[in-house]
């Protein structure tokens, strides 16, 4: 494969990978997953994610931020600014709104999300956005930030075509496509990814969660990303190689700082 795949959303800092992360990264590379973006979710995991970038230089790229679940404990976010200023950081996030679990009050989620959009925009960093049962509010906020220089990806996109089209057309967003496209019951999502513009789609695992078929029920890992690529290719009636090349090119447009490390990987 000429272009390696890029896993645009992973969580490699957790206990799920503590025992075998070297093996996990090696397996991914053997299957041409050449770059992994590992996302922090609060202060501690953001710091750990930066440490992973040091442990796997040119392979694991860090994103730092506050997941909506942890918005209530994020304080004033002053701690986040020096982390965002680390030159290895390729994106701000993950950030967003989660009205399914409501682990943090919704007003606080919106406040912390908006604050992070400000910090990302001020630095020209792309924003990695989590959205669960909150598309109306996410679309409204992202629409207001459009044209201010920040690009966004709505990761783990699982909504229908109309929501995807609105995010792309009105918010200028990219959409992160993960293991859910392999789920039999995800018919709305499968319809959406057949028709949404390929130049706006990127691949992700969201590991250790969202494990694709046929590994459902097990821990997800970046080496399973080719399964999602193959499923997307089958749905669009395109060769997997073409989907790999397009989604990798999209990821490099979305995450400009990743381009240097990804090309360094391919040269090895
Ligand atoms: Zn995530």
Radius of gyration over alpha carbons? 17 Å
User: Which strand order do you get reading across the main beta sheet?
Assistant: 1-2-3-4-5-6-7-8
The run of helices and strands is EHEHEHEHEHEHEHEHHH
Approximate shape: globular
What is the straight-line distance between the termini? 14 Å
Number of strands: 8
SSE blueprint and pairings:
Layout: E1 5-10, H1 21-30, E2 33-39, H2 43-55, E3 60-64, H3 80-84, E4 91-98, H4 106-123, E5 127-132, H5 135-145, E6 152-154, H6 161-171, E7 174-177, H7 187-195, E8 201-203, H8 225-236, H9 240-254, H10 256-267
Parallel strand pairs: 1-2, 2-3, 3-4, 4-5, 5-6, 6-7, 7-8
Helix pairs in contact: 5-6, 8-9, 9-10
The protein binds zinc ion.
Give a structural overview.
There is one protein chain. With 268 residues, the protein is α/β, with parallel strands linked by helices. It has a single domain (5-267), classed as Metal-dependent hydrolases (TIM Barrel), CATH 3.20.20.140. Helix content is 43%, strand content 16%. It has helices spanning 21-30, 43-55, 80-84, 106-123, 135-145, 161-171, 187-195, 225-236, 240-254, 256-267, and strands at residues 5-10, 33-39, 60-64, 91-98, 127-132, 152-154, 174-177, 201-203. The longest helix is centred in the middle third of the chain and has 18 residues, at 106-123. The chain is globular. The protein starts with a strand and ends with a helix. The structure holds zinc ion. Residues 9, 11, 39, 94, 130, 206 line the site of zinc ion. Zinc ion is lined by residues 9, 11, 39, 94, 130, 206.
């Amino acid at each position: 494969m000429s272009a390696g795949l890029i896993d645009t959303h992973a969580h490699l800092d957790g206990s799920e990978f503590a025992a075998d992360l070297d093996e996990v990264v090696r397996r991914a590379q053997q299957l041409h997953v050449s770059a992994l973006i590992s996302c922090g979710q609060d202060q501690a995991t953001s710091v750990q994610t930066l440490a992973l970038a040091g442990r796997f230089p040119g392979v694991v790229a860090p994103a730092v931020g506050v997941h909506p679940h942890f918005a209530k404990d994020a304080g004033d976010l002053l701690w986040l600014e020096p982390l965002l200023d680390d030159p290895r950081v390729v994106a701000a996030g993950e950030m967003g709104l989660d009205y399914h679990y409501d682990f943090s009050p919704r007003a606080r989620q919106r406040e912390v999300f908006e604050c992070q959009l400000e910090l990302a925009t001020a630095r020209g960093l792309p924003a990695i956005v989590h959205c669960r049962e909150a598309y109306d509010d996410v679309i409204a906020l992202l629409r207001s930030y459009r044209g201010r220089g920040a690009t966004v990806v709505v990761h783990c996109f699982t909504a229908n075509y109309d929501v995807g089209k609105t995010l792309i057309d009105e918010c200028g967003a990219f959409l992160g496509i993960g293991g859910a496209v392999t789920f039999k019951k995800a018919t709305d999502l499968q319809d959406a990814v057949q028709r949404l513009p390929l130049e706006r789609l990127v691949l992700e695992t969201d590991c250790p969660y969202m494990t694709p078929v046929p590994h459902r029920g097990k821990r997800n890992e970046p080496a399973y990303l080719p399964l999602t690529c193959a499923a997307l290719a089958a749905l669009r009636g395109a060769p997997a190689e073409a989907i790999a090349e397009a989604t990798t090119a999209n990821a490099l447009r979305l995450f400009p700082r990743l381009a240097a490390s990804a090309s360094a990987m391919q040269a090895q």
